[in-house]
Design goal:
By secondary structure, this protein is α+β, with helices and mostly antiparallel strands. The protein has four helices and five strands, in the order E-H-H-E-E-E-E-H-H.
Length: 128
Amino acid sequence: MERQRVLADRSRSFHFLVWEGALLSRLCSPAVMAAQMRALMPWLAGGNVRLGIVPFEADLQVPAGVGFSIHDGTLVITESWHAEMWLDDPADVALHIRAWDALAESAVYGPAAHRVIVRSWRVPRDDH
């Protein structure tokens, strides 16, 4: 949450995509997960931060894969289980931009994204 301070800098812009499966994966306690879900809500309104959710029912042009970030169109940072990779070769960056654009087209935004987030909260959980 501390790293999110940079998002308040209105001189910068951000576009995030989240796979719906990430909203359902329990990597922390339900209370922490609920707090994280609530923290997503302000970013649905737009501004300098754009948040898209790729829902399960989306028609995908490319399969969802590993997470990556594109920085100023010149650097891609991606991670595997054992390493963080910084890719600055123009061909690698272009490939990731094409994948990003395809996933962004499959995403929902604003009220539709809100509905996906709320739906994920309503999924029955086995707490045993």
